[in-house]
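User:
Care to share a sequence and structure tokens?

Assistant:
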Amino acid sequence: MENSIQINKNIFNWVNQTKGLAILAIVIFHFFQNYPERIQLILSLDRNMARLGYAAVDIFFVMAGFNTSYSISYKSIKFQWNSWLIKRLIRLYPGYLLAVVCTCFLYYFGGLFKIKLTFKFFLSILGLAGIKLQVINPGFWFFTVILEIYIFTGFIFWLCQNKPSKILLLGILGGVLTKILSLFFLIQNNTSNYLFFLQNNFLGSYLFQFCLGLYWGFIYVKYQSFRKIDFVLAINIFSLGFIAYSVLTINHVNIIYMLGFDMLFTPFFFLGIQTLLFRLDNNLNIKPFLNIIGTLGIYSYQIYLIHQPLYFVIFHKINQYIQCNSYLKIIFFLLILSISLSIYVILFIKLEQLIIKKLTSVLTSLNKV
């Protein structure tokens, strides 16, 4: 029993730390993406951090799959899609709906948003707007896609007969087909369909990453680690992708990361991060930093939901009043946002916990009646 508990603890250390690094990358990327003064330094950082941001989102979908299959396989329970989906929705929606309310208040008092009761607004509240119909927070596209994937999870298990190898194959086939469709619409200059299949609206854009996570969750439970073959394949696939990426870069070809490089790079990135974190976990010198990163990972979902709207409001307000050296201004913005986001996240989490506690109490009382 002690062995089991220790293994479980070690797993969730690097799981939370991985999510923590991913959300940190996304928060930094969105800072440079939305920074109001588009000087050369910001443009350069925006381009480079975008690649890191895309990779971080891929890691989140791998983790979503990994946590799903790991919890099912580790507990040796039969997968009941209906009850599992209900539990996931109960976990997802309170935080999301609270983020919607907080964002609307933030926009209102920040002078950026006037609520209009349109069809798009109601779709946004329900988390079904994606990015094309989104009127509250463009970052809410993630909720739409993760919702699609969780609804689709039951079909994945049924179609693949709970066999990890078939799940991985489905992810590869679905991912490749999505890239082909994206490329086809790009060639046809059909921008709307191209962007739909590329990212931000369609589960197929992240099906490979999710199925890879499902596959590795089963593998990890069986072997209590990742296998040598996992590392060999990930390194070889990454190497081929890196060579192609370098050749295109040297020849000044515009590289679209989500048109296939995400599938080539993600396995290597995930295993590389896991290996590094697992080895650093017992390093006392770096332990405090890892604990902070792990805490960010625990609350990564909440941070993702609320951080970008805060950027919009603060950038808008501060940019109106602060006039100074461009580089000094960047430092000032970073300090203000770091403090503001920390306070906002803590208050949001406390409020979410209070609401969930009250909701649980009410539901328990109703069940007793």
